[in-house]
Design a protein that fits this description.
Length: 563
C-alpha cells in the first residue's frame, strides 16, 4: 500500500524525514554574451493583473550560468529559481512545498517516489511534462562537465544507477527514472534518502524542455532568447557583467500570486556604490560589507541574518609542507576567528573552526547538529599562537626542515568578505616562525578554475549547503568528490560516511556524522574560518525577499511593493 502525500503534508513529511530545521529570514560552464534580449518565446494567452511595480536588486556577482547542468554559484541558483520551477520549491522557512508536482507518493520501502504534475506551461505555451524531468536529469548525469551531477549519486539523492553513470562513466548506464505518462514522474532510489524531497528544490533537479533545448543547440542558456521559463518570472534581457531583467511570467501556473511586474537586477561589485544607489532611491535591496555596517546599522532599512555559507581554508596535499598534518593543524590553529568576526567583518558572521555551520540542520532530538559536535580550532590570542607554533615546529621536524623559512601562497577572491578575511588570515598565519604568505587574488571564476587545476597552496573558499543535512558539507571531502580540490584521501573517513548512510536509526546516523567530522578535523585537510552573516539594506516598502541558509539563497516569488 502506498502512502499518499497531499499538498498540505508533502513539505511536512519531507521535513520530518530529513529531521532537519532551517534558520532563514524574510527580509523587508555557460555564460552570457555581452547583451541578449528575449523575444523568441511566444507570449502566453493567459492574462494576469498588472501592478505596474518592479523591484530593483543590486548584486555583487553576475550569473555564471543559467544552465541547470552548469550552474554552481548562488547568484545563478537565484536567477534560475526565479524563472524555472522544479518538482518542489521552498516556503520562507525553507520547508519543501509543492511546485510543479502537486503531490507525490512514497512506496512502503521508501525507495520509489512517484510525482504527480499539475497543469503547467512553459512560457512558449508548451505544457510541462514528466519527460521534461527525464530529459533534464539524463542530460545532467551523462554530462561529465556537470559538476553538480554528484547530487544524483549516493552522495546526494541516491537515484538508482547514478553512481555508475557519474562516477564510473558508464555511458549506457540506466538512471532509475521514467515518465509513466505526461503527468507522472517516477524515481527509484538505490537506498533510502531522508532529505530526498528537500533536494528536489535545488536547480540541478529542475526540468528542461527537450525540443527547445535541441532547437537552441550551442545557444541554449547563453542568452535570454536561449531560455524557457515555467516559473514566476522570465528572463527578458541579460547584459553580461551589468544587468538582468526579469518580467512576470503570465503563463506561470500561479501567476495570480506574483504581485510585482518584474525584477531589475544590477550587477554592482562595490558595496559602497550600491549603498549610495540605495540612498538615492534607485535600488530596493543591496548587501553591505563590513566597512558599511556601522554606518547603516541604525537605519530602518538595515537588516541582518546568519547565512549557511561557510568560508574555509583548503590545503593542497601536493605541496610538501601541506601534506603534513601538523603543518595543517598549525595553520588552522593560529587564526583568531573571534577577532576576525568581531573586529574585521562585523556583519553578524560567527567563528566556525569545524566543517559544518550552525543553525541549518537538526538531528533526531530536534537539536542543532552543532550542539552535539565537538568544537575545533577555538583558541584565541596568544594561546592560539602558542598552540599553533608547537604544531608548526613538530611538523617541520617531521619533514627534516627545522628552523627553515617557508613560503606558501593563499588564493582568494578580491570581493567581500573574502578580501578582508584573506588579509586578516595572512597576518595571522605569518605569526608562525619563518612563514611567509604570498597573496594570490583572482576573481571568483578564475579562483574556481585554479582550484580545479590544483594550482594553489592554500585557498580561502566557501560552500553553501545544497540541502539541510550535514552531508552537504561532509560529502565534499570524500575521495573522488569533484570539490575535494586538495585531494584528501582517508578510507576511514569515507567508511564513516558510508556507515552513516547505512545506519539503522537516525540517532546512529547522527553519531556517525559527528565521528566523521571529528576525524576530518584531526586530519585538517580543510579548516572552517567563519559562517557568513548577512547585512543588507531593504526598501521598507518591499517585502517577500526570502533568504535561505541552504539551497537557493534567495527566492523572489512572493515579492510585494507597497505604494
Amino acid at each position: 500500500m502506498k502512502k499518499l502525500l497531499s499538498v498540505l503534508t508533502a513539505g511536512t513529511m519531507a521535513l520530518s524525514l530529513a529531521a532537519c530545521s532551517n534558520s532563514s529570514s524574510t527580509t523587508g560552464s555557460s555564460a552570457a554574451p555581452e547583451s541578449s534580449t528575449g523575444s523568441s518565446a511566444a507570449s502566453a494567452t493567459a492574462t494576469t493583473s498588472s501592478s505596474g511595480k518592479r523591484v530593483t536588486l543590486a548584486k555583487e556577482n553576475d550569473v555564471i550560468s543559467m544552465d541547470t547542468s552548469y550552474a554552481t554559484d548562488g547568484m545563478s541558483f537565484e536567477m534560475i529559481a526565479a524563472t524555472v520551477e522544479g518538482l518542489e520549491t521552498m516556503d520562507k522557512a525553507g520547508n519543501p512545498i509543492p511546485g510543479i508536482a502537486e503531490s507525490y507518493d512514497i512506496s512502503d520501502d521508501e525507495l520509489t517516489y512517484t510525482f504527480h504534475l499539475r497543469d503547467a506551461n512553459w512560457d512558449n505555451g508548451t505544457p510541462v511534462t514528466a519527460n521534461d524531468f527525464v530529459f533534464a536529469w539524463e542530460e545532467t548525469v551523462h554530462n561529465p562537465s556537470a559538476e553538480y551531477s554528484y547530487l544524483y549519486t549516493q552522495d546526494g539523492a541516491c537515484v538508482q544507477g547514478a553512481d555508475e553513470i557519474v562516477y564510473d562513466q558508464k555511458e549506457d548506464g540506466k538512471l532509475g527514472i521514467q515518465a509513466v505518462d505526461d503527468k507522472t514522474f517516477e524515481v527509484k532510489l538505490s537506498k533510502k534518502c531522508p532529505y530526498f524531497v528537500s533536494l528536489m528544490t535545488f536547480p540541478v533537479f529542475y526540468p528542461i524542455n527537450e525540443e527547445f533545448f535541441k532547437e537552441q543547440g550551442d545557444n541554449y542558456a547563453l542568452t535570454a532568447d536561449g531560455l524557457l521559463a515555467n516559473g514566476p518570472y522570465k528572463l527578458t534581457d541579460w547584459t553580461k557583467g551589468s544587468s538582468l531583467t526579469l518580467d512576470k511570467n503570465a503563463s506561470y501556473w500561479d501567476a495570480d500570486n506574483v504581485k510585482v511586474d518584474g525584477i531589475d537586477v544590477k550587477i554592482v561589485p562595490e558595496a559602497s556604490t550600491s549603498a549610495l544607489d540605495f540612498e538615492s532611491g534607485n535600488t530596493d535591496f543591496t548587501k553591505l560589507n563590513s566597512t558599511l555596517v556601522d554606518k547603516y546599522k541604525d537605519s530602518e532599512s538595515y537588516t541582518s541574518y546568519l547565512e549557511g555559507y561557510l568560508w574555509y581554508l583548503q590545503f593542497n596535499y601536493a605541496n610538501e609542507y601541506l601534506a603534513n598534518a601538523n603543518i595543517r593543524k598549525a595553520l588552522g590553529t593560529v587564526i583568531d576567528r573571534v577577532d576576525l568576526v568581531d573586529n574585521v567583518l562585523k556583519d553578524g558572521s560567527i567563528a566556525i573552526g569545524g566543517f559544518v555551520p550552525q543553525d541549518f540542520a537538526a538531528g533526531p532530538d530536534g537539536k542543532d547538529y552543532s550542539e552535539g559536535a565537538e568544537k575545533f580550532f577555538t583558541a584565541v590570542g596568544q594561546d592560539a599562537v602558542d598552540a599553533a607554533t608547537k604544531y608548526w615546529e613538530d611538523g617541520l621536524k617531521e619533514l627534516g626542515k627545522e628552523g627553515e623559512s617557508v613560503t606558501l601562497s593563499l588564493l582568494y577572491e578580491p570581493a567581500d568578505p573574502s578580501k578582508p578575511a584573506a588579509e586578516f588570515i595572512q597576518s595571522q598565519l605569518q605569526k608562525l616562525p619563518g612563514l611567509t604568505i604570498e597573496m594570490v587574488s583572482q576573481e571568483k571564476e578564475n579562483r574556481i578554475e585554479k582550484q580545479k587545476a590544483r594550482d594553489f597552496d592554500i585557498v580561502l573558499t566557501r560552500w553553501g549547503p545544497d540541502y539541510a543535512d550535514p552531508t552537504t558539507y561532509l560529502n565534499l571531502m570524500l575521495e573522488g568528490n569533484s570539490y575535494n580540490y586538495g585531494d584528501y584521501v582517508n578510507p576511514a573517513y569515507d567508511a564513516l560516511i558510508t556507515d552513516a548512510a547505512n545506519a539503522a536509526t537516525p540517532e546512529e546516523r547522527w553519531e556517525k556524522l559527528h565521528e566523521a567530522e571529528k576525524l576530518l578535523m584531526e586530519d585538517a585537510p580543510v579548516v572552517g574560518v567563519f559562517q557568513v552573516g548577512g547585512a543588507s539594506l531593504v526598501n521598507p516598502k518591499v517585502t517577500g525577499i526570502e533568504s535561505h541558509s541552504f539551497g537557493v539563497p534567495y527566492i523572489y516569488k512572493n515579492l510585494e511593493k507597497a505604494d
